[in-house]
Amino acid sequence: MPDGTAPSLIAIVDDEESVRVALGRLCRAYGLDTREFRSAHELVASLAERRPDCVLLDLQLPDCEGLDADEWLRRRGVALPLIIITGRDDVKLASEHIVLAKPVDAATLIAAIENVVRAS
After folding, report:
1. What is the C-alpha to C-alpha distance for residues 113 and 6, in angstroms, rounded to an integer?
2. Residues paired with residue 86 on neighbouring β-strands, in sequence order
3. Are strands 82-86 and 54-58 parallel, antiparallel or unpaired?
């Protein structure tokens, strides 16, 4: 990066490969570093190596719901900046987390990531 700082690491957790690939390309186009995971379990296993600056988390994963993974981590003292990506429109979630609907608008996603990283 021009100022010499490392790019923010964005973890992308989605069971759909096409979504992971598209979100990864978008983030990298804006100078962000990415790691892609098929499941919340893969994300958890990677945390000892490097903790992400922000997690893009699919709400409905086959191994566990996205919010279940967030709750499990928080009970263990691991709080990660989180953006939920979902096909559902759930007002309750929107009041507790940043929630973006699929398909995700590029400008909205990048602005949300920047806000979450800056606030953490």
Report:
1. 16
2. 101
3. parallel
Q: How many helices (H) and strands (E) does the chain have?
A: 5, 5
User: Residues 102, 85: contact at Cβ < 8 Å?
Assistant: yes
10-residue block means of pLDDT along the chain (120 residues)? 74 95 97 94 90 92 76 81 82 70 93 93
Read off φ and ψ for residue 4, nearest 5 degrees. Answer: 90, -5
Q: Cα separation of 23 and 117, whole Å?
A: 17
The CA distances from residue 37 to 5, 65, 103, 119, in Å, are 25, 14, 19, 24
27 with 11: CB under 8 angstroms?
no
Q: pTM score > 0.90 for this model?
A: no
Reported in sequence order, the residue ranges of the chain that DSSP labels E, i.e. its strands, are: 9-13, 33-37, 54-58, 82-86, 98-101
Tokens, residue 66? 């996205």
